[in-house]
């Protein structure tokens, strides 16, 4: 078996920039992995998780260290799980191997993985952190969507939610505190957030400080994001959160994400599908898990000035299944 590995750095402009508490992005850097065999090509995209110290260079180096085994065909998707830890490098390789296997067997990935056939599904529309009036302006332009996600993380957070609810009375709203709150802040905000019909609060406290939530009531359900990366983290968060945000770049690929879904279902934890800011190629594998998710937040390509071609289609807040020419 002879394979050829291509690893390529790419940059994609973010229209107007995208702000959360920790940073503002004007462009996103992704790593494209291609595995060629017998005239076929499997692709995967990884986005380095800078909060955990990942960079394009470090992710590429992890992949390059495995080049010999990849090109010899000895690094299977199953072996990959024990060779690399969770993160963007394993995600890109795992998804590329799924894609290649699907093309070689002429069967879509969802069938190979024993997943339901993909159907159109509503996804959140993310509104960057800004002043209340500015966030309300964006919400007003998108009030036809079924679900809005507000990025929070400042002293005016309740005012931000109140301003958005005033202009989008019929939308579901979720909020992401991006680790910027304390348990006391959640306790102070929760009653008003419940009145404003906020569906859930994502990652209110910094990862590692989750135990502080044990004594806090639940006027609004909580969703773990930065506090959980792969299945190993699930038992701890199962005691403290009602939802878990599964992101392929954190989990290290579709293979591990499927395991996380199974764990969450067994424990009665709600599932949110999330993503890093990336292209449709990064969203396509995650979308296969949409049938299991209560909340889908895979709208990242809509923040880019240009996407891949072909790309996933988004219309009025509904995400279409990825075209097979893109992935899977």
Question: What would you say this structure looks like, in words?
Answer:
The protein has 328 residues and is an alpha/beta fold. The protein has two domains: 4-108, Enolase-like, domain 1 (2-Layer Sandwich); 121-319, TIM Barrel (Alpha-Beta Barrel), CATH 3.20.20.120. The chain has helices at residues 56-64, 67-72, 77-83, 88-105, 109-112, 132-141, 157-167, 183-195, 234-238, 248-251, 254-267, 280-287; strands at residues 4-19, 24-37, 40-46, 121-122, 125-127, 147-151, 172-176, 198-202, 222-224, 243-246, 270-273, 295-296, 314-315, 318-319. The strands form three sheets. Strands 5-6-7-8-9-10-11-12 form an eight-stranded parallel sheet. Strand 13 (314-315) and strand 14 form a beta hairpin. Helix 1 (56-64) packs across helix 4. The longest helix has 18 residues, at 88-105. The mean pLDDT is 94.
Based on CA atoms alone, the radius of gyration comes out at 19 Å
CATH class of the largest domain: Alpha Beta
Assign the CATH superfamily of the largest domain: Enolase-like C-terminal domain
Provide mean pLDDT, rounded. Answer: 94
* Percent helix: 25-40%
Strand content: 15-25%
- What is the second-level CATH architecture of the largest domain? Alpha-Beta Barrel
The SS-based structural class is alpha/beta
Spatial order of the strands forming the largest sheet? 5-6-7-8-9-10-11-12
Unreliable runs, pLDDT <50, ≥5 residues? none
Distance between the termini: 21 Å
Strand tally is: 14
Provide the domain count: 2
Largest sheet: 8 strands, parallel
- In DSSP terms (H or I, runs of 4 or more residues), the helix count works out at 12
- Predict the CATH topology of the largest domain: TIM Barrel
- What sequence of helices (H) and strands (E) makes up the elements? EEEHHHHHEEHEHEHEEHEHHEHEEE
Shape: globular
């Amino acid at each position: 078996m002879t394979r050829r590995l291509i690893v390529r750095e790419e940059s994609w402009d973010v229209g107007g920039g995208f702000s959360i508490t920790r940073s503002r992005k004007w462009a996103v850097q992704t790593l494209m992995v291609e595995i060629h065999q017998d005239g076929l090509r499997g692709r995967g995209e990884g986005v380095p998780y800078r909060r955990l110290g990942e960079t394009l260079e470090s992710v590429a180096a992890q992949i390059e260290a495995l080049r010999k085994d990849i090109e010899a065909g000895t690094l299977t998707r199953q072996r990959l799980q024990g060779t690399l830890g969770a993160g963007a490098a394993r995600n890109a390789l795992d998804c590329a191997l799924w894609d290649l296997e699907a093309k070689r067997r002429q069967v879509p990935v969802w069938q190979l993985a024993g997943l339901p056939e993909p159907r159109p599904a509503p996804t959140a529309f993310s509104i960057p952190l800004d002043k209340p009036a500015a966030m309300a302006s964006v919400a007003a332009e998108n009030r036809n969507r079924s679900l809005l996600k507000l990025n929070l993380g400042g002293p005016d957070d309740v005012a931000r939610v109140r301003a958005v609810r005033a202009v989008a009375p019929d939308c579901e709203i979720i909020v992401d505190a991006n680790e910027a709150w304390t348990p006391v802040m959640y306790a102070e905000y929760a009653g008003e957030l419940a009145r404003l019909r906020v569906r859930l609060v994502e990652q209110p406290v910094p990862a590692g400080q989750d135990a502080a939530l044990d004594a806090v009531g639940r006027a609004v359900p909580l969703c773990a994001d930065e506090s959980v990366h792969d299945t190993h983290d699930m038992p701890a968060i199962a005691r403290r959160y009602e939802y878990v945000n599964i992101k392929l770049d954190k989990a290290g690929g579709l293979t591990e994400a499927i395991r996380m879904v199974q764990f969450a279902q067994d424990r009665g934890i709600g599932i949110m599908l999330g993503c890093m800011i990336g292209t449709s190629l990064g969203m396509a594998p995650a979308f296969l898990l949409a049938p299991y998710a209560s909340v889908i937040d895979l709208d990242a390509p809509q923040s880019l000035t240009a996407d891949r071609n072909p790309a996933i289609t988004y219309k009025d807040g509904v995400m279409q299944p990825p075209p097979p020419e893109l992935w899977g």
